[in-house]
């Protein structure tokens, strides 16, 4: 009888250890919190500087180790028609330039982490590469960002400048071409994962 009881205790112990291990593995994956995240696109035009906010984004980040900021996976998707400037005419021109009827999202997918620098107190500087897809064109781009790990909350901050024409997007125009948009834009992001 005690032999079976010992076996039962060992099986219970093994089950508890397995459950704790699985919980720790699952705790390494975090989902983007849209309402706490911000992504803004800044640009210029012949009339004035402008910016657009992304109102609907999703994504996830996965670590093999949060202690060393070892990122296994990072994805980010922005619903293209959630880009809002506060001016309906500008939004319409943006959606036309991005061909939003065909391409519903702008996506970034991490392909390689090149370097992680520990800045202390859960803050890391990450140099990486990823595939950025805009309006049907995908390019592998360098992306540098800061990661702050604070318990169950992960914050990513950074910015990236690029030319719209690199993604075969013609910079939008308005007023029959009298107002032209500059080719270069800068994306600034502060992304929260939990």
Automatic annotation (TrEMBL):
InterPro entries per the UniProt record, alphabetical: Lipid/polyisoprenoid-bd_YceI, TTHA0802/YceI-like_sf
Any Pfam family the entry gives: YceI
Residue ranges of every copy of the Lipid/polyisoprenoid-binding YceI-like domain listed in the record: 29-194
Protein name per Swiss-Prot or TrEMBL: YceI family protein
Source organism (scientific name): Aestuariibaculum suncheonense
């Amino acid at each position: 009888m005690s032999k079976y009881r010992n076996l039962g205790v060992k099986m219970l112990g093994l089950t508890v250890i397995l459950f704790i291990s699985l919980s720790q593995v699952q705790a390494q994956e975090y989902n983007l919190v849209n309402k706490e995240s911000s992504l803004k696109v800044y640009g210029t035009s012949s009339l004035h500087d402008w910016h657009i906010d992304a109102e609907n984004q999703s994504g996830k980040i996965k670590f093999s180790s949060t202690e060393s900021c070892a990122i296994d996976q990072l994805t980010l998707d922005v619903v293209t028609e959630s880009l809002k400037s506060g001016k309906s005419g500008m939004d319409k021109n943006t959606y036309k330039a991005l061909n939003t009827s065909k391409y519903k999202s702008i996506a970034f997918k991490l392909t390689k982490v090149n370097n992680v620098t520990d800045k202390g107190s859960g803050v890391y500087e990450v140099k990486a590469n990823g595939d950025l897809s805009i309006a049907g064109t995908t390019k592998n781009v360098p992306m540098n960002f800061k990661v702050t790990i604070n318990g169950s909350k992960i914050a990513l901050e950074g910015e990236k400048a690029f030319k719209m024409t690199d993604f075969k997007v013609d910079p939008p125009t308005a007023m029959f071409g009298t107002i032209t948009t500059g080719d270069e834009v800068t994306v600034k992001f502060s992304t929260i994962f939990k």
